[in-house]
Write a structure and sequence with these properties.
Blueprint lengths: L2 E10 L15 E13 L2 E8 L8 H14 L14 H8 L11 H19 L4 H8 L10 E7 L11 H15 L3 E5 L5 H15 L3 E5 L9 H9 L6 E2 L7 H10 L4 E3 L6 H10 L8 E2 L9 H13 L14 H10 L4 E4 L19 E3 L12 H7 L1 H4 L8 E4 L2 E2 L1
Parallel strand pairs: 4-5, 4-10, 5-6, 6-7, 7-8, 8-9
Antiparallel strand pairs: 1-2, 1-12, 2-3, 4-11, 12-13
The structure holds magnesium ion.
Magnesium ion binds next to loops.
């Protein structure tokens, strides 16, 4: 088999919400489609990927560097012994002539291609991706249905709410609880102890017994840190997310040493190099804390498994791995690699919210899709952004296409 064409498009999210670090109204994401020369049911087999949210689209890196490099590689070099696309070999080809270190946004572009190739590979085998990933990680692939744990992510700051903001927060948490989540994460500002306590108390009351986690997105003000940690510890939150700036391991280690609360971080570290520094210098505790490295922002599955192995060698369990992302590829990885939990945006009106259409969440558990591949085709609000990549006049639709090495 060989790759015939790759299409990518930068998609505006237009979501009127923000966290303590970024707003989503001007945020973008990349959508990707890899078209193979294999045909099933009369249609070419296509691998899709959709970005993790929060770091903008990667069109420049994809168009200028990585897609041409993949298409310039010998087709045979991208295949395994069975003649099927081998995502690990493809990532090796993508990283040819790339320097170590200085990872920047590069890992997200590579990870997006890796994700699309895994979708393609699973479709070619007519199997759900989680089964392939289980085998890739050396885990037994059960014959029966696979379930995995999820938590609901909501409670962003929204413009125009004014004094009604806490009521809106409560409604979001209540809706997440009603959807079946047993752990629900909300956003905090990190600038005021009183404001953050008020939000957390409202969320805990609305959660009606579900656990509440809080995320300050690296923006906890150093001047209130000590009082904030002591006050928050009284509320028995499930975890505190990114209490320090992502690369400030020294500050994180000091927080980890003084607070009894579980800490979660890693979503803005994109490589084994950075994850190793977190492991060495972050002061995190294997029996308490959570690692949120984002698989697709971090060079993809192979690099992620290297990260997991490094942590396991230091006494960590896979149950401590709760990848950032909230998208369907990450859900497949959580199910297949046996990770702790999947993050899911609980607002089902968002294209990147929820899981496959109709998925039932029961006490925080979900059954993995049995559809071939990632199952993008079973999430209509998201697939509306992916299907047009290969289904209409690409250039007039603003989609960049690269076919047989020619950029169009
Ligand atoms: Mg976060």
């Amino acid at each position: 088999m060989k790759i015939l064409a790759i299409y990518e498009q930068t998609v505006p999210l237009n979501a009127p919400m923000r966290n303590a670090s970024v707003a989503y109204d001007t945020m973008t994401a990349s959508a990707l489609a890899v078209v193979s020369d294999c045909v099933m049911n009369g249609e070419p087999v296509v691998g899709y990927a959709f970005d993790s949210i929060g770091r903008y689209g990667k069109g420049g890196l994809l168009r200028d560097r990585f897609i041409p490099r993949l298409l310039a590689a010998s087709p045979a070099a991208l295949l395994d012994q069975r003649g099927l696309i081998d995502p690990d070999a493809a990532v090796a080809a993508l990283m040819k002539n790339e320097k170590d270190g200085g990872h920047g946004e590069r890992p997200g572009a590579v990870g997006l291609i890796d994700a699309a190739l895994w979708d393609l590979r699973a479709k070619l085998e007519a199997r759900p991706l989680w089964r392939l990933l289980a085998e890739r990680a050396g885990r037994p692939s059960p014959q029966e249905a696979q379930t995995f744990d999820v938590y609901g992510s909501c409670g962003h700051f929204r413009p125009g709410r004014g004094t009604a903001e806490l009521d809106g927060l409560a409604r979001e948490v209540q809706a997440a609880k009603a959807e079946g989540f047993s752990t629900i994460k909300i956003k905090l500002g990190g600038a005021s102890i009183d404001d953050d306590l008020a939000r957390t108390r409202v969320a805990i009351a609305a959660a009606e017994g579900a656990r509440v986690a809080v995320d300050v997105n690296g923006k906890l003000d150093a001047s209130i840190e000590s009082g904030w940690l002591q006050a928050m510890a009284q509320l028995n939150v499930a975890w505190v997310e990114e209490p320090a700036s992502p690369l400030d391991y020294h500050r994180l280690s000091k927080i980890a040493a003084v607070t009894p609360m579980p800490l979660a971080t890693g979503e803005n570290l994109f490589s084994l190099d950075d994850a190793r520094n977190l492991l060495r210098y972050g002061g995190l505790q294997p029996d308490r804390d959570l690692i949120q490295i984002d698989i697709s922002l971090s060079y993809g599955v192979a690099e992620y498994l290297r990260i997991v192995s490094e942590f396991e060698a230091a006494g960590w369990s896979r149950a401590a791995f709760v990848p950032h992302a909230g998208h369907l590829f990450a859900a497949q990885a959580v199910a297949g690699l046996g990770l702790g939990m999947h993050e899911s945006a609980s607002d089902l009106s968002l294209p990147f919210g929820g899981l496959w259409d109709g998925t039932a969440i029961k006490a925080g558990h979900v059954a993995a899709s049995e559809a071939p591949g990632v199952g993008f085709e079973l999430k209509s609000s998201l697939f509306q952004w992916l299907k047009p990549l290969v289904a209409r006049d690409r250039n007039s639709a603003g989609v960049s296409s690269i076919i047989a090495g020619t950029v169009g």
